[in-house]
Amino acid sequence: TQWQTIKTYSEILFERQDQIAKITINRPQVRNAFTPDTIQEMIEAFNYCRDDSSIGIIILTGQGDLAFCSGGDQNVRGNGGYVGKDHIARLNVLDLQHLIRIIPKPVIAMVRGWSVGGGNILQLVCDLTIAADNAKFMQTGPKVGSFDAGYGSAYLARVIGHKRAKEVWFLCHPYTAQEAYQMGWVNKVVPLADVEQETLAWCHEILQKSPTALRFIKAAMNADTDGLAGLQQIAGDSTMLFYESPEAKEGRDAYLQKRQPDFNKFPKFP
Ligand code: 1HA
């Protein structure tokens, strides 16, 4: 498989092949732990994918076989969050979680090795997860003086159930790929050597489908879990489609032509 660099960053790799973009956390020396700068680069890359209409699907992964992501880099954990080059303490991974949720294209996590803490929540908020058979999933917050009481808890409970989600957070045990699969935490487990090939196969199959249909499916599931913010998204998608209709264009054109709109000619469907 041939990946072409979209843009060079210091803490991530950002590549594409055809309609598939791949964002790779590239800090293997710390098991792909993130700093606010790593997250800022990822936010920029995801926004690029959102805006580029020739990109249909995004893979999120970590460099190397040992880890997807080990969460916040504890070396730069300050007092109110993690501290990057600008010396400001931030929890900007929460912005990235939200962006992954609202980007109207499928996002697939490709997990090799450890998926831990805030890194495991990034995996959780991706639409699908393909795990290598060496993947291990773990929350550590209560061990290291942290917690994610947002998507990391409430959405985790939606995905794997309340009893399991509480167990994950109260005990902080590691779970194998197979155990995660049984919980519905990941979609498929494959041998480590096959994980990229399998992820690409899923991407190619999804890319054959109607992008607008996929967009509404994703938005509908968000609407169910994200309350008014989720509803706003699916509402925005409806507006996007409506703007393409003669009825909406009549409203715009009448305004610009300083005349009364004639909406009577449009059918009132059952
Ligand atoms: O909870 C939140 C948030 C909550 C709300 C809002 C925002 C949040 C943002 C982030 C987070 C968090 O992510 S809290 C959880 C932080 N992460 C951890 O507690 C995981 C710590 N690491 C580990 O448990 C283990 O390293 C590991 C299970 C991932 C891997 O174990 P392994 O394979 O035995 O490797 P190990 O030798 O432990 O690690 C290799 C190197 O990577 C070590 O450095 P070295 O001794 O070679 O110098 C290790 O210190 C480093 N490393 C690994 N993970 C991290 C790390 N360094 C800094 N931060 C890390 N997270």
Topology readout:
Layout: E1 4-8, E2 12-17, E3 20-25, H1 36-51, E4 57-62, E5 67-69, E6 82-83, E7 89-90, H2 93-102, E8 107-111, E9 114-116, H3 117-125, E10 128-132, E11 136-138, H4 141-144, H5 151-160, H6 162-171, E12 175-176, H7 177-183, E13 188-190, H8 195-207, H9 211-242, H10 246-256
Parallel strand pairs: 3-4, 4-8, 5-9, 8-10, 9-11, 10-13
Antiparallel strand pairs: 1-2, 2-3, 6-7, 11-12
This protein binds 1-hydroxy-2-naphthoyl-CoA (1HA).
1-hydroxy-2-naphthoyl-CoA binds next to helix 2, strand 9, helix 3 and helix 4.
Write up what this structure looks like.
This protein has ten helices and 13 strands. The protein has helices at residues 36-51, 93-102, 117-125, 141-144, 151-160, 162-171, 177-183, 195-207, 211-242, 246-256, and strands at residues 4-8, 12-17, 20-25, 57-62, 67-69, 82-83, 89-90, 107-111, 114-116, 128-132, 136-138, 175-176, 188-190. With 270 residues, the protein is α/β, with parallel strands linked by helices. It has two domains: 4-207, 2-enoyl-CoA Hydratase, Chain A, domain 1, CATH 3.90.226.10; 211-256, Lyase 2-enoyl-coa Hydratase, Chain  A, domain 2, CATH 1.10.12. The structure holds 1-hydroxy-2-naphthoyl-CoA. 1-hydroxy-2-naphthoyl-CoA is lined by residues 30-31, 33, 66-67, 70-75, 91, 93-94, 114, 116-118, 140-141, 144, 146, 148.
**What is the molecular shape?**
globular
Q: Architecture of the largest domain, CATH level 2?
A: Alpha-Beta Complex
The end-to-end span amounts to: 50 Å
What is the helix content? 40-55%
Element-level helix/strand string: EEEHEEEEHEEHEEHHHEHEHHH
**Order of strands across the widest beta sheet?**
1-2-3-4-8-10-13
CATH homologous superfamily placement of the largest domain: 2-enoyl-CoA Hydratase, Chain A, domain 1
Rounded mean pLDDT score: 97
- Give every kind of bound small molecule, once each: 1-hydroxy-2-naphthoyl-CoA
Cα radius of gyration in angstroms? 21 Å
Count of helical segments? 10
Q: How can the largest sheet be summarized?
A: 7 strands, mixed
**CATH C-level name of the largest domain:** Alpha Beta
Keywords: Lyase, Menaquinone biosynthesis
Cofactor: hydrogencarbonate
Site (Important for catalysis): 82, 243
Family: Belongs to the enoyl-CoA hydratase/isomerase family. MenB subfamily.
